[in-house]
Specification:
The complex is a heterodimer. Chain A contains 8 helices and 11 strands. By secondary structure, chain A is an alpha+beta fold. Chain A has a single domain, classed as GHMP Kinase, N-terminal domain (Ribosomal Protein S5, domain 2), CATH 3.30.230. In chain A, the strands form 3 sheets. In chain A, strands 1-2-3-5-4 form a 5-stranded mixed β-sheet. Chain A has a 4-stranded antiparallel β-sheet with strand order 9-8-10-11, with helices on both faces. Chain A has a two-stranded antiparallel sheet with strand order 6-7. Classes of the chains: A alpha+beta, B alpha+beta.
């Protein structure tokens, strides 16, 4: 997992933070409730040359801008099916190119005699690139973030199906994410929210041509259609939103700040989206290596040569370290995430009037 | 317009309706990012640049492979100025992801660093580095110009002592059907289409002089021309450019003073 270095907190400070977050109810350094998000500034359509764009600034000064551009591309014809099986699995093997449950999607018609909309998109029509200042593109952090965001956007299959024009052409969507400030705290929720807003504001030119002829679009930008339609009739799926959730003992905290991340027992990134019946669906979940594992442990007196301990061999030091419970001020957390805690996290995000709904409702307010 | 010279000669209006000496709409904000030492956001027409400055700070680890070594003065006596320019993939009409070692970008980075080496008091911070990061969000002509202006504002916000602002502008030579030199106006502040078609140059000046500010004698810090123009037109272009720089400097100064007023009001009230 992406390493997270540079936590300038002493063992005493870490212990203090952990103890206050482990209280019932948890005491956070800034006094927020456990589901209270920090204020943010968001604006859309900031880039005139992009199909969709958004910019979000978090309260701690981190800022990200996302530009979405679309290009028409010729569809590479899929190789012929072997034994009637769908060959095109998509980049991430998330299912048969989107047709997880529907086998003969090309042949299926719904009540109106129109072709079914599912399963025509391909994963490679979406390209996400993340630019973090000061890091190369193949550093751990940008690659990990890019993989997470791509997975979250492709998991529900809805986005790539919208990019279909006809059997010979499709839209290729480029989502370029630019982190404008240094990555002070784990930037995943910031980038995910900004991408969500940018996709909501993305417009594609209106198609004039019919069926399989070369695509021709309306020159009038006012006639362009949103990628994610707004009217109530359609109740389209919204793009997914990824939230960062931490757990300290049995407490669950949302929107962790940098200090809270440094002492978390477990860190989970959850991607949710709004499905057609307005309920929330969890589409991706990833555990993130908690930065607390990289913190420096306190030194027990038995090993502290300035407190009068003898110098010991390596095996003895290791043995003392293994059993130093209670002998040190702070020890990096060991062990994984309890299933009950994980279940509680998911429930808090997905339930009616839960955190996920609140976040999505808040973002809707940004749209004009 | 440039290919069809008669349009300009008829009404003396450019494609976007400006006259020869009109600047595009310049909008700038200073101190836009709380987490950096200095920051600014500048829009000149549709060219949008976001600049952050960090420093002066201790030398970071050596630059990763692919970044050109900035030809700075020895770091024992002066601060080193490092410029990083990042052209976003969505900045132009076509989506294009640029490689880090793009020669054009490297040359612009070098030009910007050299320009500020002449105005910043780097001798006050030996053994340190001032990093200027420019994010190009949208480009529509006059890229180097906007970068210099944005960097000036961000450096002012960072509080790095300098002798004066560096303000820049582009100037082109309007096409004319006959080759006479008298009736041709140099065009100020080009947009993307004009830049592609006309020979142009970027001029960056300070107004350093007797201390009277704008009234002092301008010093040219940056002069970049990559296209060919008739020698006879050069002087007119240059004088229009220097005057344009003076006007841009006035606009940048207004932005700084507005921010200063805001800061003072917050402190006093």
């Amino acid at each position: 997992m992406a390493p997270y270095t540079g936590i300038p907190l002493s063992p005493a400070e870490l212990s203090y933070l952990h103890t206050s977050l482990a209280q019932i109810p948890p005491i956070r350094p800034d006094g927020r409730a456990s589901t209270h998000f920090r204020p943010l500034i968001a604006e859309t359509e900031v880039l005139p040359a992009a199909n969709g764009s958004a910019r979000i600034c978090f309260a701690d000064g981190t800022e990200a801008i996302v530009g979405v551009k679309a290009e028409v591309e010729q569809t590479r014809q899929a190789p012929a099916s072997i034994n009637g099986e769908k060959v095109d699995e998509g980049m991430l093997d998330l299912g048969g190119g989107g047709a997880r449950d529907v086998k003969d999607d090309e042949m299926k018609v719904d009540g109106d005699g129109k072709k079914q909309q599912t399963g025509r998109g391909r994963d490679e029509w979406l390209e996400i690139s993340i630019d973090v200042p000061g890091m190369r593109d193949d550093d751990a952090l940008p690659m990990f973030l890019s993989a997470m965001l791509t997975e979250a956007l492709l998991a529900d299959g809805g986005l790539r199906d919208k990019l279909y024009i006809n059997t010979r052409f499709h839209w290729r969507l480029y989502i370029d994410i630019l982190l404008l400030s240094q990555p002070l705290s784990y930037p995943l929720p910031l980038l995910s929210l900004t991408t969500h807003l940018a996709l909501l504001s993305t417009r594609l030119p209106a198609l004039i041509s019919e069926k399989d002829e070369d695509p021709l679009f309306n020159d009038d930008w006012e006639a362009s259609t949103h990628l994610y339609l707004r009217d109530d009739q359609h109740q389209q799926q919204k793009p997914s939103v990824t939230l960062l959730v931490i757990s300290v003992n049995d407490n669950i905290l949302f929107d962790p700040s940098k200090e809270e991340l440094a002492v978390a027992d477990a860190v989970v990134a959850m991607s949710v989206t709004q499905s057609t019946d307005n309920s929330l669906k969890l589409i991706a979940l990833r555990t993130v290596d908690p930065p607390s594992r990289l913190t420096a442990a306190g030194t027990p007196n038995a090993l502290n040569t300035s407190a009068g301990a003898q110098s010991l061999g390596a095996a003895e030091v290791a043995a003392i370290r293994e059993k130093d419970m209670g002998a040190t001020v702070w020890r990096p957390p060991r062990g994984g995430l309890k299933r009950a805690v994980l279940a509680k996290m998911i429930k808090m995000v997905v339930e009616k009037n839960g955190v996920g709904e609140e976040v999505l409702a808040g973002l809707v307010g940004v749209e004009v | 317009m440039p290919l069809d010279t008669s349009t300009y000669a008829l009404a003396h209006l450019r494609l976007d309706g400006r006259r020869w000496n009109e600047l595009r709409h310049l909008h700038a904000q200073i101190s836009t990012q709380a987490s950096s030492d200095g920051s600014s956001y500048l829009e000149q027409g549709n060219t949008k640049i976001l600049c952050t400055v960090s420093g002066p700070q201790e030398q970071r680890r050596n630059a990763p492979g692919g970044r050109q070594q900035q030809a700075g003065a020895g770091s024992d006596t002066e601060a080193q100025i490092v410029v990083e320019m990042n052209l976003a993939a969505f900045s132009s009409t076509d989506r294009k992801k640029r490689a880090r070692s793009d020669k054009r970008v490297q040359e612009m980075q070098f030009t910007i660093a050299e320009a500020f080496r002449g105005t910043l008091f780097t001798n006050l911070y030996p053994h340190s580095t001032i990093t200027i990061t420019l994010h190009v969000l949208s480009q529509d002509g006059s890229l180097l110009t906007a970068c210099l202006n944005a960097a000036t504002l961000a450096l002012v916000d960072a509080g790095i002592p300098m002798s004066d602002y560096v303000s820049a502008v582009t100037v082109a030579s309007a096409p004319s059907s006959d080759q006479s030199l008298d009736e041709v106006d140099p065009l100020l502040d080009l947009n993307g289409l004009e830049e592609q078609e006309l020979p142009f140059m970027t001029v960056g000046t300070t107004a350093a002089g007797t201390g009277e500010g704008v009234e002092g004698e301008a010093k040219i810090m940056v002069l970049v021309m990559e296209t060919k123009v008739q020698m006879g037109r050069l002087e007119a272009m240059l004088s229009v450019g220097v005057d344009g720089c003076r006007r841009v400097r006035g606009l940048l100064d207004d932005v700084v003073r507005t921010q200063g007023r805001r800061v003072m009001e917050n402190k006093i009230s």
